[in-house]
Amino acid sequence: MDHFLYRNGILHAEDVPVPEITAAVGTPFYCYSAATLTRHYKLFDEALTGMDHLVCFAMKSNSNLAVLRLLGNLGAGIDVVSIGEYLKARAAGIPGDRIVFSGVGKTRAEMKMALEDGIRQFNVESEPEMAALNEVALSVGKIAPITIRLNPDVDAKTHEKIATGKKENKFGIPIARAKEVYAEAALLRGLKIVGIDVHIGSQLTDLEPFEQAYAMVADLARQLRAEGHNIRRLDLGGGLGIPYERSNKAPPLPLEYGEVIRRAIGDLDVEVEIEPGRLISGNAGIMVSEVIYLKSGEERNFLILDSAMNDLIRPAMYGSHHDIVPIVEPAPGTEMTPVDIVGPVCESGDTFARQRPMPPLAPGDLVAFRSAGAYGAVMASEYNSRPLIPEVMVQGDQFAVIRARPTFDEMINRDSIPSWL
Questions:
Q1: Domain range for 109
Q2: Per residue in 19-49, pLDDT tens?
Q3: Angle between helices 34-47 and 254-265 (to 10 degrees)
Q4: Which terminal CB of the chain, N or C, has fewer other CB atoms within 10 Å?
């Protein structure tokens, strides 16, 4: 469910007509619904009612400060994968003891900054990282709380570029070596073992891979406890998918996901952490674009928009689907015509949809890309020297720009020319 609905034939973001926002900020832009973000966070929080838990928003899906502040005010923790994300989370008001540091390539400088400013835990990905973290912790007189990320070799049945739990992936330590690595960690004076971490991938639409992975984690937790390790926290990752195509079968609900967790680890008396990102932010956002031209080709027609692959790269990178709808609702019975929906970037890959049935549209008309709140703005670039597009948040009948569009001068002035030129 989201809060982007037609009213009197015009798409609204909560109680604000999208054309009203367009008049204020221009196109293209991202727009997020505070009500949808709130609802989706609460679905996960309520799914774990009765269990000691923390829902840590995976901010790699959407790192805007306003989004982080809203979720932090609701009680969310944050899952970060870089010191830049850590610092943004802190700037948004998230306390260090609600921030989990994930990622396979943490540097010593990043470790030091997080230790000194406060961190809930590091999800350690490898033995070299574990040794480096121990040295850094001892050098600053701190004890680093850690979980060790395990690779359970479970097929998440998702896109190959976002699968993270198979043995050929770069993530985690093979589960077969887990007891050996935990024994090594217990000998390092700068580390404190607090639990186990696992994350098998993103955009999962089937609960069975979670069942497999969590059963393995639960069994390992019992074995590690028997060997004297204080396993009091299980970080179970995220990855639950969203319905990018409204016509497809809906993915499992957070409540069903919560039941999988209860069945797997409910008897262990542990604190549960989960790290949803896409399901919280994905359907909470749209990208609004304007039609520039209609172009007739020999074999197909093209709808050319003012947004491009640099603004929303998911279709070009993953072959991903986004529903694309006109801001003015088509009349019932309107004839649909297949068109290729493309942007102005000089790449054939700058294609959002091929042969997508669309109602008649004209230059100046507006369209919205649904389910664009996750991995949209955060993956954008200035390719072709196109400035990053604004982000807007709506709450009820009000809206605010939460990241402004840079001017061309601001974009150009970030570069410098050496004196010898």
A1: 34-281
A2: 999 999 999 999 999 999 999 999 999 999 9
A3: 30
A4: C
Q: Is 106 contained in some domain? A: yes
Residue 282 to residue 154: CA distance in whole angstroms: 25
Contact residues for 49 (Cβ-Cβ < 8 A; gap 6+): none
56 is catalytic: no
Q: Give the side-chain half-sphere CA count within 13 A for 212.
A: 16
* Same domain flag for 348 and 260: no
Pairing of strands 324-326, 301-305: unpaired
- Residue 27 in any domain: the answer is yes
For residues 231 and 324, membership in a common domain is answered with no
- Pair 123, 77 in one domain: yes
Q: Is there a single domain that holds both residue 146 and residue 207? A: yes
3-class SS letters over the chain: CCCEEEECCEEEECCEEHHHHHHHHCCCEEEEEHHHHHHHHHHHHHHCCCCCEEEEEECCCCCCHHHHHHHHHCCCEEEECCHHHHHHHHHCCCCHHHEEECCCCCCHHHHHHHHHHCCCEEEECCHHHHHHHHHHHHHCCCCEEEEEEEECCCCCCCCHHHECCCCCCCCCEEHHHHHHHHHHHHCCCCEEEEEEEECCECCECCCHHHHHHHHHHHHHHHHHHHCCCCCCEEECCCCECCCCCCCCCCCCCHHHHHHHHHHHHCCCCCEEEECCCHHHHHHHEEEEEEEEEEEECCCCEEEEECCCCCCCCHHHHHCCCCCEEECECCCCCCCCEEEEEECCCCCCCCEEEEEEEECCCCCCCEEEECCCCCCCHHHCCCHHHCCCCCEEEEECCEEEEEECCCCHHHHHCCCCCCCCC
Convert the pLDDT of each residue in 111-160 to its tens digit. Answer: 999 999 999 999 999 999 999 999 999 999 999 999 999 988 765 454 45
Q: Which of 256, 281, 306 is the last residue of a domain?
A: 281
> What's the pLDDT score for residue 29?
98
Note whether 303 and 220 are same-domain residues. no
Do 18 and 45 reside in the same domain of the chain? no
Q: Which two tokens stand for residue 131?
A: 């040794």
Residues 88 and 168 in one domain: yes
- Verify that 26 and 99 share a domain, yes or no: no
Catalytic residue from among 346, 362, 417, 421: 346
Q: Quick check: 362 pLDDT over 80?
A: yes
CATH number at residue 397: 2.40.37.10
Residue 260, in any domain of the structure: yes
